[in-house]
Amino acid sequence: MAPFEPDERLVADSYPVTELPLCQLRLMDDARFPWLVLIPRHSGIREIFELSEADQQQLWREAARVGQALKRSLKGDKLNVASLGNQVAQLHVHVIVRRRDDAAWPYPVWGHGTAVPYDLDSLAAMRDRLLAQIEGLDLE
């Protein structure tokens, strides 16, 4: 089996945050939205049903718990969780905290306006905040 590598487009559009039990956790480079991507560390997987049942459960556990912690921390109004894969076929799950006053509300974030890249200070602050929220979670 080939070693896991995240799709080059995911790498180009996001920053690594940490490794969870199943997924690589990345932060999308758009400071308008608290937007995470979870990528299961399995090569060649395109669809959720291609994961074992245990890994399917683990994927949703990680997405739900990370999303819940981030939504609570950032006082979000809604949590969006999606796995589309139309442009990047590698299985990945978007976890996005939404607020009624965000730039795209109530519409999807995809294709809305122009991304606002993180500067180094805000990227470091968001990464630290994410790691602090994830630290105490039961992800196994």
From TrEMBL:
Residue span(s) of domain HIT: 36-105
Protein's name in the database: HIT domain-containing protein
InterPro entries: HIT-like, HIT-like_sf, HIT_Hint
SUPFAM superfamilies: HIT-like (SSF54197)
Pfam families, alphabetized: HIT
